[in-house]
Amino acid sequence: MRPTDLDLMAYADGELDDAAALEIEEAIKADPALADIIAKLQASRALAQAAFEDVEAAPMSQGLAALIGEIETPHAEIGQPQGREPTDPVIVPMPTRSRGGAAALTWPQTIWPALVAACAAMGLLAGYVLPGRSGPDTFLQLADNGSAEPGHLLVKALDTLPSGDDTRRVLIEASFEAGDGSLCRQFRLEQQTGIACREDASWRLVILAEASSPDRFQAAGGGDPVAVASAELGVTTRFNERQEAQLIEAGWTRKSD
Amino acid sequence: MANSPELLVREGLVEHLPKFRRFALVLARNPADADDLVQAGLERALVRAASYNPAYRLESWVFKIIQNHWIDQMRKTERQGPHDDISAAYSLVGEDGRERLEVLDMSAKARIAIEALPDDQRAVVGLILVNGESYQDAANVLDLPVGTVMSRLYRARQKLIGVLEPSAPEGTLQ
After folding, report:
1. Was domain B95-166 assigned CATH 1.10.246.10?
2. Global ipTM
3. Looking at chain B, which residues constitute the CATH 1.10.10.10 domain(s)?
4. Which tens digit of pLDDT belongs to each residue from B53-66?
5. How confident is the model over A201-238, as pLDDT tens digits?
6. Where do you find CATH 1.10.1740.10 in chain B?
7. Which of residues 143 through 202 in chain A touch B, CB cutoff 8 A?
8. Looking at the complex, does the CB of residue B16 fall below 8 Å from at least one CB of chain A?
9. Threshold 0.80, pTM exceeds
10. Is B18 exposed, middle or buried (0-12, 13-18, 19+ CB in 10 A)?
């Protein structure tokens, strides 16, 4: 069967997975004219890039040049005040780890006691976890040491759901590799948002916070604790749909693990 | 402050500045308006820097801010009534670029062809063809289904190839 025009374009742009690309290549063998179409599509991309490649060398407007100068100046006061530490995030206190890993966040040590105390004083963990309901139908549960950990439903979602699937009570928002190589997923429950990373063949909560605006791009300023934690983790790779599917298939392990 | 969202945003804005300028130029079609658009987008990104989540691509976040600002500007312009700026669509060649197409090199022709595209197709071309964004990332930036992005991209490419290859039957890649 002849591939559709959009299939050919997706092939030309390298957007198809291996199996779909193979189908296109088989179709090209049967109909060499398809190769000409793909070549034109690829040429159109190259030309579009060439048409705007001189932008980098073009002089900037005075206003933009001044702004870039300010951005490049260390500690310049633009937009949000710099150097402000988060004062009120709801952080799940993590147990001390014997070796490096995604949970080993490098928050300033002076902040940790305040965060832990705030969590305890406000009873926030109790709000997230249903005491006595650590059975198979919970998203979050309390560990023996009093910290929160993913419940059965959240573990299942982290294991199996692709990002963006909002048909369930948990939404996986993104999957990424942290700076230390850990595989992490950011999730959203009805009232909480957080990040869990793989450790010792299970998911460990790195951060759990109250969910704020569902529009991540339009959220007001104020130091989103999940964003801060994500920055602390040092995101090195954001997994695309295909990479994520491979990790789900492999049970969130890699050959090097 | 190391690895704070604010610092990541500042570093990312400078690192990816050429991408933002290219995208803005595809949208605005003249360098002065494009740099104003980038400046406004970067200022907005800085104001919201504390909320930036590094789990998402900074480029996509800023592209979206630029795109939204561009749409806001277009709506304001529409409310102010039409204005004649035909030359903006042919910024490389002045008042009547079409007559001079033959003397231009291929990349200049491509730029003219892209500038002549409708706004919605230009945005897709600016993200995917000019800047190398994936279909999915472009869909996220534009708040569109991937299928819609692909349809717009294909229609834009038909026109682009048609301009570059005038002998080909119009509206087809066959």
Report:
1. no
2. 0.83
3. 95-166
4. 888 889 999 999 99
5. 889 888 887 776 444 433 334 457 777 777 888 888 88
6. 1-83
7. 173-174, 176, 186, 195
8. no
9. no
10. middle
